[in-house]
Every structure is written in structure tokens, then in C-alpha cells.
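Entry 12.
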Amino acid sequence: MAGLWQQLSSLRQGRALALLHLICLFCPPSGALPWDTKASTNPLKGFQVVKGNFSRTFLRVGYHKIAEIPAGARNISVRETIKSRNYLALRSQSGISIINGNWAIDRPGIFIAVGTMLTYQRPNEIRSRNGESITAPGPLAEDLHVYLIYQQPGPSVSYEYIVPLENTHPTPEPDPPSDILPLVETGSPSHSGERDRQSDVTDNDIIKEKPHPNQVPSDPRPTYTWTKSGHTECSSTCGTGRRQVLWECVEKDSQETVAADLCDPALEPTNREEDCNTQPCPAYWDVGEWSECSRRCGPGTQHRQVICRQVTQVHANGTETSVTVGQEVCGLSDRPVTKSTCQLKICSQWEIRSEWSPCSVPCGVGQRSREVVCVSNLGDVEEDEECNMNLKPDTLQNCDMGACARSWFTSIWSQRCSAECGGGNRTRTAVCLTDHVTDLPLDSCKGERPPQVTSCDSGPCQNRLEWYTGPWGQCSAECGNGTQTRSAACIFINDGRMEVVDDLKCSSLSQPITAQPCRLKPCGVQWYVTDWSVCSRSCNGGYRVREVRCLADNISPSDRCDPSLTPESREECNNQPCVAEINPSCSDQYHNCMVVVQARLCVYPYYRSVCCASCSQVQKTYPDSLQKNHIRR
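Predicted 3D structure (C-alpha cells):
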């Protein structure tokens, strides 16, 4: 069985070497390969862990095979270690595309193929910093081929899986004498490999057991100690991650792994975690969301923010701390574009739906119109705002139908004479118009204007009363609103003679107005005042007030009045001395009644009666309302 496994291993290595020679036609001159594959014993006995990495700076755009995962493999994991615009792809040994085949990129999801369930994940292209991944629990029913669809320089992909061992203690085999690493290394781990792993363990990684006090040094019984067997994967590939340290119990002399209960539990190491990958993370481009298109239709542009960032620390909970660095750190040649063309839809266009209409006038200058609508690319009529208003064809246009003939038009003569008796006039209107309907009078008609006034005679005037009015007088105000008047008299006319009679005789006739408002010009701003208030005192000098305001013509407040012409808002009044009325029955009964007045006790009936004269004097001096306020003070 071991020989058969060795033949299969050699066959796979041969295919891998052939593939390597084909791909390395595009490798650097140094001959260094872009991937690394390692195999190690899995903690699960009977299985072997196979790991590999693929990285190249530049490749041709297209599909590139990364690895062949053999049938029977389990716990399969293929991941991008650096986020990129590249894609992972899978193909069965029989040539059937499983994921992202034939240049068609599948949506992330679950795929059933080669006897297992394959989970394809592609994180959010903007917010996530993780690359693509494909995982499967296995076992595979047939070999699985892993490809990289190359589009962006600097790809980096790691893969890992476990395969069963045919023999837990196989015979050591020598390494193949080739300077080209196989694409996928298969086979059983050798004891020499185990020794190489143990040779990497330093003296600090081996914890020796202390002998028991009753133990005889020459006792041939074996002794056991704790030794460092390895560690788990680092939680981060850069930026200082954490990993678990693995310890195992071994026989001290032979370094054979034994059961853990043979070692002293009190001496089991406590340092279970350590820092790893302390080197700084490579800078990356942090790409923001695209902005809205600059135009609602037709070709436009959109922008996005591109920042060069670098992870400085990876926390235990998986979160990261990053800072913004200079763009040259990320490499300006790989900087994602920040401006792109866009087109939300095809712009609507103007469409002329009708010919020009006939001119609106039979002669002269008129207008004509036509129908213009906004039509979408599907032929639907839309609002005008959907089209470019600056490009809208004219819907109205002037039209000249030639000169029009012009003629004098007159109205009918008025039926009544302007005078009820004697000589008067009849009138009509004459206008120059074109020979078609128009509301505007014109000039330069041929010939003279027809007469608009003609005389008439209503017969001799006898015993007639009428109002006679004189001319209007001057306006009462030089500016602003004023009034002008005229005189009116009742006239008796008899056989050409006129006589002024009493106005009552013309009371049956409509009397003409004798006053009307007038306004020569606006006054501009001026001072307005209210009436004076009541004087504060009836004698011995008081004061009165009024409100003063500066107003414009529209009675709105203004500050443009001449301050030197501001009317007084307060003035003195009632300066005459107060004269006390002598009432024989009203006299002071005490000589110190002035004290009563000064103490404001006159409001009480008793003091008003005993100091009548003094209290009456106070009442004459101050008005009632002020007296009350004076007494309250």
C-alpha cells in the first residue's frame, strides 16, 4: 500500500512539475517560484496537513493554476491573503468548471460538487479588507484544481487541507533531487522530518521535571517533561497578532511523545499565548463609495475618495487600528481611479410635432406658432424639464404679412346737443385704424382727420334755472394731500339775460361739487404730531405732551426728517396762580394743619374736617387723578 501511495505521489509531482515548467515561462530570470508548499503532521493522528502559498508580482491576464487538491482531502481552505480585484476559480479533474469558469463570475454562495459542499465568499468590495475564500469540509470524491483569475498585480493566495496517512509510522523517504518545488507535496511525514521539527526546539522550549525527593538517581525508570511542540496560526499576518503556544509531554531521553498525564501537572507551562507577525502591515488603498452621477441623463462623471491607509495594530477581537499615510506608500501606479464616466439614462430629445400655424393677422406683423414636445428615447412624451431647455426649438415666431391699408374711422354723432337751449355742440370720435380689426389707434392716415365737433341749436332759452360754477381755486397744500374749491351760483336765464337768484331755487337740480382733493407733488418725509394732552395741573404751572413722528409719503416710519425742525413734544401750561375759594364754613381748627397736608392725611374724613382750608387748597392745586397719586406718595 505504501508503494502505491508513493507511485501516486510521484505521478502528481510529475504533473505539477510539467505545470511549473509551463507557467514559469513567464517567471523572473532568477527562477524563483511564486508559491511554497509544506506538509506537516496534523494533531489528529492519521492525517497530514498540507499548506501552500502562491504569490507573483506580474502575470498575464487570465486563468493560472495554483494547486491540485487530491481526492480524499478534508478541511479545505483557499483564501486570498491580500484583497485584490483577482478572483478564485475551481475546476474538477474531469474538466468541469465549478466556480467562476469561462470568464463568468458567480455570486457568492454554496456549490455542491466533487462529493462535498463548497462555500464561496466574496466580502463587500468597499467596506471589507478581506479577500475571497473557498472552504469545504470534504472528503473530495476526485481531484480538485484551484485557479487564480489574474487581473491585478501582486496576488497572494494561501491554501490548506488535510489528507489521510496510509501508515502512522512510514519509512523515511529521501527528498527528490530537484531544485524546483512541487506544486502540491503529498506523501507521509518521515522520522527525519520529525527530527528536523524537534531540532528547531530550543533549550528554552523544553521544561525539565524536578526529581522527586525519594527518587534514586540511578533508577532506570524513564522520566518525562513538557516540551514546546509548536503553535497555532497567528491571528494576523502583520501588525502584531497573537497565537497559542502548544506543549506536549515527551520521554526525556528519547523525546518520544507520550500521554500528558505522565508529566507533572504542576510543571505544565502557563505561557499559552505569544506575539507574532510583529512586522508592520502593508499599506492598502481604502476606496470609498462612488458619488452620484453629475448628470441626470447622458454621459456624466462620478467621483470617489481613495485614501492610502496602513494597519498599525490588530486587536484580539479581530478589529484593527489603521492610520492614513502618504499615497506613495501604497504605490501611485496601483492607485484606484477616483473619477469615472457614468450614464443613468439616455437623454430625452425635443421633437417638433406640427408645422407653423397661419399668421395671426392678415396684414402687418403678427405671430405664428407650432407644437414642440419633449420625447424620451422610448417615444413617450415627458415634462419639458426632462429635456435641455436651452436647446428647445422656438414655438412662437413673428410673421410679416405686408403693409396694411389705413383709414379714418368715425363714431356716430352724439344724439343730444350740449345745451338744452340756445347754441351747443354735438361730438363724435375719429381714429386712424387698419382695415382689419385692431384695438390700437394708428397715425399717418391719408387725408385730414374728420371733424369731431359740430354745432347745434336747441332753440331760445326762456325762464330757465341752472347752476353756474366758477374756476377751481389753488390747492390748499403745496405738497401732499390738499383741497381746492370753487364757487357755485344759481342762475335764472330768461331770453338771453342771466340773473343770480337764491340757491334754494336750484335745489331740484343736481348741485355741482364745490371742493375736491388735490395733490401738487409728494412732500417727502415730514414731521407729524398728535394733539396736546390735558395739562398736568390746573394752576401754578403744569405741562402737557404730544407724540412726534417722522413719516414718509406712504405713512411709513422714516429717519430722514430734519432734526433741527423737530416739533416740541412737551410744553408748559396753566401757569396762573391757584386762588383758593373762601368758604366761611371751611376753616382750619388747628394751627399746624400744614403738617397734616405734608403728611398726606387729607384723604381721611377727620383731617379734612379739622383742616378744611388747607386740604381744600391741596385739592385745587392738583387734579383729582394727580391728587390721588400725590396723596399716595
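Annotation: Confidence is low (pLDDT under 50) at residues 1-35, 167-219, 624-633. Residues 201-209+222-276 form one domain.
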